[in-house]
């Protein structure tokens, strides 16, 4: 029986990263591409509760007849629609990406739509990989607004190699025990090595950019500068030094090691 | 020096739960209320990257002269705006809630705006409590659309007692080590006891409700039935049995215990 593989992202269904994932995975099973109709970065694992969701079948590449489904919703919505309506079952493997722009640190993991979609898929029991390519913000937004011209320019070759090898291993051997999502970040300039990492705590020092509209009313842009560096062993540290970074993620934010100490802390006080 | 306390939520600034938190905390420091202008449930720790954010000062209760700031954005946006623009520094304590409706399980923690705001605050270094009240969905949505009439009907008395006691302990003794957020759920009918819990894996078995619009085009509502029950030790299990559930949460989704085994798994294969 052919393996079922779902590809999704948060850059929107027309991002060139979707086609790169397709190129990596096309020979490994039945491929479904289901992703937000437009860019939905920063939405984490948001799901649409307050509004209905629509879906349209779209042609992504006429040459190779690649078709996909554009979801008028979030990345996590896309996974839910794919599982329940389009595939009709839980896929064997879900790949979220290739995201244009890294997803490193606890901040990215909790706000990234790429990782949010991966968490949603992992909850359903799929083997799940989130994969992101380190690019400059300039490249990222250029790609979003001018993707057709730029799709050929972005160099996904290392991403495609890594994703193909990883997917092959996972489909043959299964997922490592105790892991819900493998979060993979590909450096813009590879040093030839792979690092298994933990999440850095922060990536940005947030900042607010205050402006006035033409009617003189204040509005804000959320912004931030990247933190200078980070300690050894983290995804941020590894990626900036040219390593492919692989971080095993858990869905469970329970602070397990402090559960007992919290009990003691509470009962000593009360 | 007076302690600075931020109250936020994801039910929107006009939810009666905000006033309940204010009643619990008003004598403990300088209170700031900053929350989304409208209900933003299910948005997790989303931040607004693609659109600017506006803020309006609003009067929440003329009798007690309670004022707040309505943010045209997400709960996490509200925390960022509060820290950088309204308070101008990191508050000592951030309370997200009282949310109308429980926030239990890994699903809720990764999708809840209540917990999302708490994660954002914890990243800045505040002591942070997310607090939610078990209510029926009917009550929850009635409150949103008819809050002025219903605010007096919702019984927040236990929430207020718990929050007041917990905040007092935290401001005197500091936050338990190794914890980023305390996720507190208050049962609709209390059994008189407190349970320290881990997150249940799931809360809902998701389902899609397919409909046709007046023009015959299909659209979807994301929906789900609650899982039957859960194993002992989880927040879901405790809450359903009438316990106040307190779960220590970590911002860090690294699957620490499997990091070494993933390395071995990978190198054995490659």
Protein described:
2 copies of one chain form a homodimer. In chain A, about 35% of the residues lie in helices and about 25% in strands. With about 270 residues, chain A is of the alpha/beta class. A 9-stranded mixed sheet of chain A has the order 3-4-2-1-5-6-7-11-8, with helices on both faces. A two-stranded antiparallel sheet of chain A has the order 9-10. In chain A, strand 3 (about 55-60) and strand 4 form a beta hairpin. In chain A, helix 1 packs across helix 7 and helix 2 (about 75-85) runs parallel beside helix 4. The longest helix of chain A is centred in the middle third of the chain and has 17 residues, at about 155-175. The first copy, chain A, is globular. Chains A and B meet through helix 2, helix 3, helix 4, helix 7 and strand 9 of A and helix 2, helix 3, helix 4, helix 7 and strand 9 of B.
Quick structural overview:
The structure is a homodimer of 270-residue chains. Chain A has 270 residues and is α/β, with parallel strands linked by helices. In chain A, 34% of the residues lie in helices and 27% in strands.
Which key features would you list for this structure?
homodimer, 270 residues, alpha/beta, Stationary-phase Survival Protein Sure Homolog, Chain: A, 9-stranded mixed sheet, two-stranded antiparallel ribbon
């Amino acid at each position: 029986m052919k393996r079922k593989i779902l590809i999704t992202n948060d850059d929107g269904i027309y991002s060139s990263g979707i086609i790169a994932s397709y190129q990596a995975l096309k020979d490994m099973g039945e491929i479904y591409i289901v992703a937000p109709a437009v860019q939905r970065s920063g939405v984490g694992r948001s799901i649409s509760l307050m509004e209905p969701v629509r879906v349209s079948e779209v042609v992504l590449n006429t040459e190779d007849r690649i078709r996909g489904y554009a979801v008028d919703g979030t990345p996590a919505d896309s996974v839910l629609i794919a599982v329940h309506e389009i595939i009709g079952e839980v896929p064997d493997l879900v790949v979220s990406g290739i995201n244009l722009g890294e997803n490193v640190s606890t901040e990215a993991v909790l706000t990234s739509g790429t990782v949010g979609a991966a968490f949603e898929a992992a909850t359903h029991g799929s083997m799940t990989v989130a994969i992101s390519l380190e690019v400059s913000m300039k490249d990222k937004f250029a790609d979003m607004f001018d993707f057709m011209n730029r799709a050929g320019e972005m160099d996904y070759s290392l991403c495609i190699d890594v994703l193909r090898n990883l997917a092959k291993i996972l489909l043959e051997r299964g997922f490592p025990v105790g892991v819900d999502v493998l979060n993979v970040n590909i450096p813009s300039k590879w040093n030839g090595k792979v690092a298994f990492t933990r999440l850095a705590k922060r990536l940005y020092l947030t900042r607010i950019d205050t402006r006035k509209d033409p009617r003189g009313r204040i509005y804000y842009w959320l912004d931030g500068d990247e933190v200078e560096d980070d300690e050894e062993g983290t995804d941020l540290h590894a990626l900036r030094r040219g390593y492919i970074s692989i971080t095993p993620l858990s869905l469970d934010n329970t602070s397990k090691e402090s559960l007992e100490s919290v009990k003691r802390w509470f009962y000593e006080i009360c």
